[in-house]
Write a structure and sequence with these properties.
The protein is α+β, with helices and mostly antiparallel strands. The chain has 16 helices and 23 strands. It has three domains: 11-400, Glycosyltransferase (Alpha/alpha barrel); 402-454 and 458-491, Immunoglobulin-like (Sandwich), CATH 2.60.40; 497-596, no CATH class. It has helices at residues 15-37, 40-43, 57-72, 78-94, 105-108, 121-137, 144-162, 175-186, 189-201, 234-251, 254-270, 302-318, 322-336, 357-363, 386-395, 524-527; strands at 2-3, 10-11, 232-233, 286-287, 354-355, 402-405, 408-411, 417-421, 424-430, 437-451, 459-463, 466-468, 471-473, 476-482, 485-491, 495-499, 511-515, 518-523, 534-535, 543-547, 550-561, 573-583, 595-596. The strands form three sheets. Strands 1, 2, 6, 7, 8, 9, 10, 11, 12, 13, 14 and 15 form a twelve-stranded mixed beta sheet that branches. β20 and β21 (550-561) form a beta hairpin. The radius of gyration is 24 Å and the shape is globular.
């Protein structure tokens, strides 16, 4: 499956165009303001200061540049463009003659360049490369690309030709997938060769790791082609798996693709939250053991969700299956969207599935408490990888909508948009995520396939006003297009219970509620405290209200009333009540709240 590039897709009015516009007009500028205040953009000037910059400030700047590149075409802004140009000039000016650029090492530890595996040098290089490709591809600024090509050439010389560095593979994967992007953009085969080399060498020898971590933490515990279980730091893992899928696809390496399929299956079958979040363990921000999916202590880092989206994209490219797009959809509408506030200014690093505001307040008073729940988003973190990562994903969101294979145009995500491909021009209008209504106006000749969403409860289709039963195969609906063709599809969308596997200890005996792609939750602002005592006997009388941000669902429920005694021999008293549910991504926008997804 070849995805249709984001540059070829024009978003039309709807949910995702509003999200993207908010990121262009608010989020991008606010992130820049906070990054400027915290010294991230000053760092690239490579001037010695009393307090050195963080080792990965360059990556924050690079991700901001990449996000800005995607948004400039549809939301041109002279101030943003000026920042881009000045930032690129600063990087190019301070790049060493050999091509190397790193604001920390070349100023503070030049004697340790390429000697410290754990300190994110190649990770920063990777994000700078991705920014350079995006800026050039979007026609925003072409000056960073030749500079980053020189940097990539220098990395190739040192790591692949001379092999005189202090380590062989990077402690934080990212350079591998960046080199693939650079190869695909420039056609220079050395970049693909180097990406494959980094994958081939990983896990073949004992390299430097953090003293308090095992080798599985950075996926160097065994050669990548032998890996079958998703382990270690979840962002590192998913960036690595994405690169494995890329290189496997481009080189025809079936061993790499077999490993990727097994790793994907391990995640979605045993380690994926209902919200699409991944990496449940706070210690090491990592995958733990199968079915270990606690709710209040969930880590589910925003960047890990974004990385899982990238991995799902690449899995579909290496062998299309509708389930890859379904998993991407689940993560995108829940874990990823939850990472950003509704006003576009603040962000979550961690995305719990349950919250107790009183406990969170108590935890903050306890020095040394390992988990201190954050129940309100903030504008910047010490480690602020997630905010610009979100904006760069939303900036290129059009790239997840369509694909083409064997001359067939595939609709994989339902986002109102226009595209020309496979001999056809398509104008797609959809009411998702509010309802399952889809309308496609096509001209040309060919075939088009629409993914059947996993959440649908019924399907009805019309072609030019006449009801039809289309060919259905492997969770796609196929239609022939002959001249002017109008296709309408109505996917049934209703409020549904979801039950967890009994091996997930935290969810045994409970159920969650979904509406279309949204996982729903309850907040204390609507329902009072002690949400864990709420029981939903049925959804038969649920009512749905459309809101600016999605839906509000009202459900008859029962609340178990607390007794006077701590323990009692009497049966609980149940009181009828109305439970109000909202999309999970909307929570924590009204101050610190209790929040619950799984109910009795």
């Amino acid at each position: 499956m070849k995805p249709i590039d984001y540059k070829s897709v024009s978003l039309k009015e709807g949910f995702w165009k509003r999200v993207r516009a908010l990121n262009a007009t608010v989020s991008l500028k606010n992130i820049y303001r906070r990054f400027e205040e915290t010294g991230r953009f000053d760092a690239i000037r490579c001037e010695r200061r009393e307090k050195p910059p963080h080792i990965f400030y360059d990556s924050d700047v690079a991700k901001w540049l990449e996000a800005a590149a995607y948004l400039q075409a549809d939301y041109p802004d002279q101030d943003v463009r000026a920042i881009i140009d000045e930032t690129v000039r600063t990087i190019v000016k301070n790049q060493l003659p050999c091509g190397y650029f790193n604001s920390f090492y070349q100023v503070y530890q030049p004697d340790k360049i390429f000697m410290e595996r754990t300190e994110h040098e190649l990770y920063c290089a990777g994000h700078l490369i991705e920014a350079a490709v995006a800026l050039d591809k979007c026609g925003v600024n072409s000056d960073l690309l030749p500079a980053m090509c020189r940097y990539a050439d220098y990395i190739f010389e040192r790591f692949y030709v001379c092999r005189d560095t202090g380590f062989t593979t990077c402690g934080h994967p990212e350079i591998e997938l960046a080199l693939v992007r650079l190869y695909e953009h420039t056609g220079e085969k050395n970049y693909l060769t180097l990406a494959k080399y980094f994958l081939d060498e990983r896990g073949k020898r004992a390299e430097e790791i953090y003293p308090n971590m095992d080798r599985a933490y950075d996926q160097s515990h065994m050669p990548v082609r032998e890996q079958r279980d998703a382990v270690g730091h979840s962002v590192r893992a998913l960036y690595l798996y994405s690169a494995m899928a890329d290189v496997g696809r481009l080189t025809g390496d079936e061993e790499l693709l077999t490993a990727c399929r097994a790793l994907y299956d391990d995640i979605v079958c045993t380690k994926l939250y209902i919200t699409g979040g991944v990496g449940s363990g706070w210690y090491g921000e990592r995958f733990t053991i199968p079915y270990d999916l606690p709710n209040a202590e969930a880590y589910a880092e925003t960047c890990a969700g974004i990385a899982f989206v990238f991995f799902c994209e690449r899995m579909a490219m290496s062998g299309n299956r509708a389930e890859y797009h379904a998993a991407l959809e689940r993560t995108l509408y829940n874990n990823v969207l939850a990472g950003e506030s509704l006003d576009g200014k603040a962000f979550f690093y961690v995305n719990p599935l349950e919250a107790d505001a009183k406990y969170a307040a108590y935890a903050r008073t306890m020095p040394g408490m390992p988990i201190k729940p954050l129940l309100e988003r903030v504008e910047v973190f010490d480690c602020s990888c997630c905010p610009p990562n979100l904006v760069r994903l939303f900036g290129q969101i059009g790239g997840v909508v369509y694909g083409e294979e064997d001359g067939v145009l595939y609709v994989d995500q339902y986002i109102s948009s226009e595209v020309s491909a496979c001999g056809m021009t398509l104008s797609l209008m959809t009411d998702l995520p509010y309802s399952g209504s889809v309308s496609a106006a096509l001209t040309g000749n060919g075939r088009i396939a629409f993914r059947i969403p996993a959440w649908q409860t019924s399907i009805a289709c019309w072609v030019n006003g006449a009801e039809v039963t289309p060919e259905q195969r492997e969770d796609y609906l196929y239609f022939a297009v002959d001249g002017q063709t109008n296709i309408s599809i109505r996917f049934g969308m209703s409020v549904r219970f979801v039950y967890a596997n009994a091996r997930i200890r935290a969810d045994v005996g409970r159920k969650a509620v979904e509406y279309g792609p949204f996982v729903l939750c309850a907040e204390s602002a609507d329902n009072g405290v002690e949400l864990s005592a709420l029981e939903i006997p049925s959804l038969d009388n649920a009512t749905i209200e459309r809101t600016e941000y999605g839906v509000r669902v009202r459900v008859p429920a029962y609340r178990e009333m607390p007794a006077q005694a701590l323990y009692t021999y009497r049966s609980p008293v149940l009181k009828e009540c109305e439970l109000i549910l909202i999309p999970y991504y909307c929570w924590a926008n009204r101050g610190e709240q209790d929040m619950q997804i799984w109910f009795l």
